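Minimal example, chain plus magnesium ion.
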Amino acid sequence: MSSGNEKAYNKPSTDFIRAIITEDLKANKHDGRVATRFPPEPNGYLHIGHAKSICLNFGIAADYEGTCNVRFDDTDPSGEDLEYVDAIKADVRWLGFAWADREFFASDYFEQLYGYAIQLIKAGKAYVCTLSTEEIREYRGTLTEPGKESPYRNRPIEESLNLFERMRTGEFADGAHVLRARIDMASPNLTMRDPIIYRIKRVPHYRTGDTWCIYPMYDFAHCLSDSIEGITHSLCTLEFENNRPLYDWILDALKTPCHPQQIEFARLNLSYTVMSKRMLAELVDKGHVTGWADPRMPTLAGMRRRGYTPDAIRAFCERIGVAKRDSVVDMELLEHCVREDLNQGAPRAMAVLRPLRVVIDNYPEDRTEEFAAPNHPQDPTMGSRTVPFSRELYIESEDFLEDAPKKFFRLAPGREVRLRNAYFIQCERVVKDERTGEIREIHCTYDPETRGGYAPDGRKVKATIHWVSAPHALEAEVRIYDRLFAAANPGAEAEKADTDFTAFVNPDSLETLTSCRVEPSLAKAAPGSRYQFERIGYFCVDSVDSFKDKLVFNRIVTLRDTWAKIAEKDDT
Ligand code: ATP
Ligand code: MG
């Protein structure tokens, strides 16, 4: 055994799965090897729930100096596609994991799996059943009633072999026959009541084309694929708990190279979103979002486009941990992890989302000054940039109120504020559109003595607001994303109300602001780069729609961190 393993199993285990593995290593089970796998079905894009599984499987391989395979679990041709294979690989890589040549496809095992099926039939442990789908369901029984044996259950082995071979050669229509494991129709576990392990399905496969018209079922293919690859610990989500006896039964019934141990853990559920590929596909198909990579989607591709960092997602997975009880994790926690990471790494910039024109009456018309602005208030190594200042500026319209209550500390007629990194200004008058009464611009004076933001006479202002220089600023589009669903648990609430989950899609999940102004240094912002727009939030240059002369930013997350407050409250 390698010294790495010794080190690993001397470390305290951080979750129940690592505790099991540590014990297995001590007992030299699986010859002291640790081999895991991440087995996505390529029928959709990966979501944040998959990230939990990826971090767990790759994390364990790293902790115990083992290996982690990527295996495409592509045994059901309907809905599977090469587009998804490519997207899944890009997402796992983006999350920060590498698998070298350990990339496998269950479809590469079709011939081997077929061979295993023949072995089962020959051992009298599988039979071809000719009941209809409907009849199979009826014969299956219920949780309280045992099932009924199929009249084909005792069909001679030779007959089953003959029929199964002819199923493969395409002699029968879809659904005419199935291959079933011969286990126990009275088992209290419904999964064990002679489960179907092969069915006829005339759907071309994205990799094997029409080589096959029979396909193995998940329960048959999965355990055998694990075994073929020498997996030691097969980690899956809780809904497969009832399938574990079948997993073990198949491996025991066949002469397989090894017998991996299936361990179940709770799947990740997140509030205000859905976490199933079927539902996500429905959102895409029905046009509720622009695609799998829409920045509102809980997919890794969507989160990447939105501006979430892989570090933040990994930190989130670390924090939620792995347990055996299902729960719903608060979306706020994910957003908190994103903020925590961006607060450290994202340079600051000034942007005005809803511009209000400000004219500084006592500032010379032809003058421009340059102010040095730090890129990060706490991290001088991030350097600084210059921001131009001139007579005409834009400020955020919500930073001005004409009839301001006392507690409104920002700009109002007669009141003074600090412009970030620049001067104090005081509002003198408001210019309105004569017809509509709307505020067109405000006129201010600045105090030249306050350059850099401090008054030599020691007078204080209550607020510092952000701004951009009107002639220098760049126009930009800013997409303000909010939660995709208006309900905390759309799946469950739809069930309760007997409606479709899409009824809970938040109609205000996207607001597009088209006349924003950003500071000129952002002209060189690369697609995908992230900034903190001061006082507003974190934003990412859109990687699809943004161009040098038509900047588009996505709001990643706001600055406000209610999670930090909740956590604080819990602490006290
Ligand atoms: P979905 O229900 O979203 O369609 P799935 O389980 O069918 O997901 P797969 O492609 O089969 O998707 O999943 C690959 C792996 O990711 C499996 O091991 C599965 O258990 C795991 N996984 C899927 N969803 C979650 C989740 N929400 N939390 C943790 N692990 C998950
Ligand atoms: Mg699945």
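The mean pLDDT is 95. The two ends are 47 Å apart (CA to CA).
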